[in-house]
Design goal:
heterotrimer; A: 234 residues; alpha/beta; Rossmann fold; 6-stranded mixed β-sheet; 9 helices; B: 295 residues; mainly alpha; ABC transporter involved in vitamin B12 uptake, BtuC; two-stranded antiparallel ribbon
Chain lengths: 234, 295, 326
């Protein structure tokens, strides 16, 4: 895919001596929402970390708008316009909610203003002076997403945003993702819950044991159900 | 003359003042150590040497460049901070992924080098450094005489501690620091240049130590040995206070300084070890330290 | 800190004719006083034992004790006092020193083990400083002067230790005993548990081991052996002073171990020999030895963490790996 905004080819990565990603290919066009599916340990989080540059030992190609990200230090990758929402959410206990929200510096114009964010997430406004970790799991997830929106990053990497959350919160997060899609943001979503993902995804990638095993557009999800259930083990 | 617990009042207040002054230095130095340790996870053994370098910088500025106390308060920390930044960039940063004990050993080696070199150049005796004319003399408070310079040291150290606390708790830079202390990688993943933050923090900590050195010069005289024995006491202060909080480091420093002063009045032989005894007791009862967050 | 966890013979890929080398070393040690000044050799042996004792903690338990001079110097004082003031047999005096050091080790260890890693190091440093202050003030140490003129005496009433050769062979015997003791501790079930604790303390706890007790046990053993070295030193050099209990001394033994190779059995001995030889060489010049020690520390920590023995072992291992068919 040559018109890809985020273009990853033959990505190999290692944790120490352990070879964890094997020749991963991934392409995302601007404005697309792409979901990476796979069971626990398949390498989904590792892929996100490798793209970001948190995992340093890599080989292959990672390009954002043609810019080579592989050689860049971690903070420059973020400044290039990649926003990261980690699996563990990463809310800082020694910061208030508002400090957490405003921590990531602006990397580009076009990010949401604080007022817009508080409109989208009213309960964050209510709790803005509380300590960051005093929020519930769902609220922390909202905060983790919200703070990246303020930076102006146009490509968001989201790692299992619905994990461990109640259905009504999951619904809310789905609404947020739809709103982000409307703004034209490009989203790489890692999920185990494909029923949630199908509501927002344009395309799916399927991962197993550190390898991409398949990819298909969202319409074909039902056609691939058998493969999905075997790979995901659900 | 009135007495309190059998001690003449002026003598008691005098010792409390000395304790408060010592406590000021304990607080300033343990503050610097805590800031460095919090973010870099390194115990900066060279902190005592940086304190000594600050005092010598003031001495050198005065005797070789004719630059007095007030500009030295700014210049000495800048000089020592610059040296510290070079140390961090060239040596300390290579050790970040390793066992933190290596950082301790590196800074220990650096402390030996600094102390050895200065001892070689200047000998072991203390060099005098006069307080600035604006701060000479004493106030008569009625119950005791308060030397102006000593009063200044206490006030200045409180201001510096408060200023540092405000910097860390209330500013954006401080937010970066607090967040990076929890999860440096994530902060970097947001686009903050964390390696530069680490360098600046080490420089800032060293500058704090140097500033304490300038404050100390007129009181304790300038000697190559002034740092190392002090830093070991500060280690004990830090163990008592716990490394978890900046405020804890400050409070513990002042309290232990005053305690040391009081011990000198009532039980002088024990005054040099009372802080260590307190440390032993705290270890028995509350190993994480009084304000510690890390077990 | 990376460590050799297995006895040399069992290390994969390293072929060392251990028995032959050991025999050679023993012959060398026995013959040495005829080639090298005996007092220098005895100095090396005492500090080598001290360093081996220290290495037991850092290399095999992972605890950096920054106050080991307490045990070395404390024992020196106990032994010096017993032999000079109470007229004890030198061997009895040395044993008293070792026991006294063990008792000190129990107290210091009990307090320090409540924290780990960096904090442990800071606590041992602070307690060491406290002990040094106490030594300064307590009458029996004679403060700044120290205990001078400690008689060498007659070992067991038979061997006159004033004879340099006799003193040397006795020192050698004590060193070999201590070295063998460390070897035995490391290669024993107790030692294996220590290594397990160092590798993964949580797992050791979950397996039911009273980890603190093992750590404390290792600490006391290390203190006792350091005390053995200190007591011997008091007899050999016939004095005990404040220098023996100060933090600089603690720093020196760390350097010897780091330079020689943390976690190798022979490393501390090599490091001690190197440092003593260096100090001896520089003693007559006014070169600031502290600076050189600091530089060696910095260089070792930055680029030479395995130490001399460690690098040699790694070199041998690489050689073996290269000669293996791929």
């Amino acid at each position: 895919m040559s018109d890809a905004l985020l273009d990853i080819r033959a990505l190999n990565a290692w944790y120490g001596e352990s070879h964890v990603l094997h020749g991963v290919d991934l392409h995302i066009r601007e404005g697309e929402t792409v979901t990476l599916l796979g069971r626990n340990g398949a390498g989904k989080t590792t892929t996100l970390r490798a793209i970001m540059g948190i995992l340093r030992r890599r080989e292959g190609t990672i390009r954002l708008r043609g810019q080579d990200l592989l050689a860049m230090p971690l903070h420059k990758v973020a400044q290039a316009g990649l926003g990261y929402v980690p699996e563990e959410r990463g809310i800082f206990a020694s910061l208030s909610v508002e400090e957490n929200l405003t921590l990531p510096p602006k990397v580009a114009e076009g990010g949401m203003s604080i007022e817009e964010i508080y409109r989208l997430f009213p309960n964050l406004h209510e709790r803005r002076h509380s300590q960051g970790t005093k929020l519930s799991g769902g609220e922390q997830q909202m905060l983790a997403i919200a703070r990246v929106l303020r930076t102006g990053a146009r490509v968001i990497l989201l790692d299992e945003p619905t994990e461990g959350l109640a259905p009504v919160i999951v619904q809310r997060i789905g609404d947020v993702l739809v709103a982000l899609k409307k703004r034209g943001l490009t989203i790489l979503l890692v999920e185990q819950n494909f029923r949630f993902a199908r509501k927002v995804a344009d395309r799916f990638y399927l991962m197993e044991d550190g390898r991409m095993v398949n990819s298909f557009p969202a319409q074909e999800l039902d056609a691939h159900m058998e493969e999905l259930t075997s790979v995901l083990g659900v | 003359m009135s007495t309190i617990f059998g001690i003449p009042a002026p003598a008691l207040y005098g010792q409390i003042l000395i304790g408060l002054i010592n406590g000021s230095f304990y607080a300033l130095l343990s503050l610097g150590l805590a800031v460095i340790f919090g973010l870099l996870r390194v115990i900066n053994f060279a902190h005592g040497a940086q304190y000594m370098l600050g005092a010598f910088a003031a001495y050198g500025l005065l005797n070789y460049a004719g630059i007095g106390y007030w500009p030295s308060l700014v210049l000495a920390p800048l000089i020592v901070g610059a040296v510290a930044i070079i140390i961090e960039r060239t040596m300390l940063s290579r050790l970040y992924g390793l066992d933190p004990l290596y950082g301790l050993l590196l800074t220990f080696g650096l402390a030996l080098i600094f102390e050895g070199v200065f001892r070689y150049w200047f000998g072991t005796s203390g060099k005098p450094y006069a307080p600035p004319p604006q701060l000479t003399g004493a106030f008569n408070l009625g119950f005791m005489f308060l030397p102006i310079y000593r009063g200044w040291v206490v006030v200045a150290s409180l201001v510096i501690c408060l200023g540092t606390w405000l910097l860390i708790e209330k500013t954006r830079l401080g937010a970066y620091l607090r967040a990076a202390t929890e999860n440096a990688t994530l902060v970097q993943a947001f686009g903050v240049n964390v390696p530069r933050l680490l360098t600046l923090t080490y420089g800032l900590g060293a500058a704090l130590a140097a500033l304490a050195g300038v404050l100390a010069a007129p009181i304790y005289q300038v000697s190559p040995l002034m740092g190392t024995n002090l830093i070991i006491i500060v280690f004990a202060v830090v163990v008592v206070g716990g490394m978890g909080s900046i405020l804890g480091a400050i409070v513990t420093g002042y309290v232990l300084g005053i305690l040391e002063g009081l011990t000198k009045v009532f039980y002088p032989e024990a005054s040099s070890i009372v802080i260590f005894v307190v440390m032993a007791l705290v270890l028995l009862v509350r190993p994480a330290g009084l304000f510690g967050r890390e077990a | 800190m990376t460590v050799q966890s297995q006895p040399l013979q069992k290390q994969e890929g390293i072929q060392i004719p251990i028995k032959a080398l050991a025999a050679l070393a023993l012959v060398g040690l026995l013959a040495a006083p005829f080639a090298v000044y005996p007092v220098l050799l005895m100095s090396v042996l005492c500090f080598a034992l001290f360093a081996c004792a220290f290495n037991l903690l850092i290399g095999y338990v992972g605890l950096l004790s920054f106050g080991h001079a307490t045990f070395f110097g404390g024992a020196a004082y106990f032994t010096a006092h017993a032999v000079k003031v109470w007229g004890w047999d030198p061997l009895a005096g040395i044993l008293l020193g070792a026991l006294g050091a063990a008792a000190l080790g129990l107290v210091v260890g009990f307090l320090a083990i409540r924290r780990q890693g960096i904090y442990f190091a800071m606590i041992t440093l602070a307690l060491g400083q406290m002990f040094a202050f106490i030594c300064l003030q307590v009458p029996f140490t004679h403060g700044e002067d120290g205990i001078q003129g400690v008689p060498r005496g007659r070992l067991l009433g038979l061997i006159d230790l004033n004879e340099p050769l006799a003193m040397y062979y006795v020192t050698l015997a004590i060193f070999l005993f201590g070295y063998f003791a460390v070897w035995r501790i490391v290669n024993s079930p107790f030692g294996n548990i220590l290594k397990a604790i160092r590798e993964n303390e949580r797992r050791a706890i979950s397996l039911g081991y009273r980890v603190d007790r093992y750590k404390l046990g290792a600490f006391v053993m290390s203190a006792a052996l350091a005390g053995l070295a200190g007591g011997t030193k008091a007899i050999v050099f016939q004095f005990a002073t404040l220098t023996d209990v100060q933090w600089q001394m603690s720093g020196e033994v760390i350097l010897m171990t780091l330079l020689g190779g943390i976690g190798t059995l022979i490393g501390p001995v090599v490091g001690a020999a190197f440092v003593i030889a260096l100090q001896n060489y520089l003693a007559s010049s006014d070169f600031p030895v502290t600076v050189l020690i600091g530089v060696i520390f910095v260089v070792c920590v930055l680029v030479f963490r395995r130490g001399i023995a460690g690098e040699v072992l790694e070199f041998l291992r690489q050689k073996k790996n290269r000669s293996l068919p791929s």
